[in-house]
């Protein structure tokens, strides 16, 4: 949780409002923190889509509440990934 807050503020303070992520900041965060995981996030359309999905009140910025939703979604995605990974691993063992 602490790490999430630190990560958010590391990027949210760079441009405009200190407490929200603009599209530029969101893109920075996605490429810096999740570049390996979301390789296609460097694609402008992908950032637009993530921004659109996250910005639930449509003010053009991602606030901390909206950011938490992203982290939750990624946690679920990672969990699915690891479940699949373990299933693959199990198959190899047989
Ligand atoms: Ca900002
Ligand atoms: Ca918003």
From TrEMBL:
Locate the coiled-coil region(s) and give their ranges: none
Per its UniProt record, what Pfam families does this chain match? Answer: S_100
InterPro entries, per the entry: EF-hand-dom_pair, EF_Hand_1_Ca_BS, EF_hand_dom, S-100_dom, S100/CaBP7/8-like_CS, S100_Ca-bd_sub
Query: Residues of the signal sequence?
Result: none
Q: Which PROSITE patterns match?
A: EF_HAND_1 (PS00018), EF_HAND_2 (PS50222), S100_CABP (PS00303)
Q: Which residue intervals define the domain EF-hand in the entry? A: 42-77
GO CC annotation: cytoplasm
Q: Which UniProt keywords apply?
A: Calcium, Metal-binding, Repeat
For this protein, the record's SMART domains field holds: EFh, S_100
SUPFAM superfamilies listed in its UniProt record: EF-hand
One example of the protein's molecular function in GO is:
calcium ion binding
Gene3D superfamilies, A to Z: EF-hand
Note the superkingdom of the native organism.
Eukaryota
- PANTHER family recorded: PROTEIN S100, S100 CALCIUM-BINDING PROTEIN
The name this protein carries in UniProt is Protein S100
Protein source organism: Denticeps clupeoides
């Amino acid at each position: 949780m602490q790490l999430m807050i630190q990560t958010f503020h590391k990027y949210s303070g760079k441009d405009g409002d200190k407490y929200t992520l603009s599209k530029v900041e969101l893109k920075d965060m996605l490429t810096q923190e999740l570049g390996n995981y979301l390789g296609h996030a460097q694609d402008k359309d992908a950032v637009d889509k993530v921004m659109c999905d996250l910005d639930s009140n449509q003010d053009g910025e991602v606030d901390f509440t909206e950011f938490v939703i992203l982290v939750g979604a990624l946690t679920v995605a990672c969990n699915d990934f690891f479940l699949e990974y373990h299933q693959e691993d199990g198959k190899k063992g047989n």
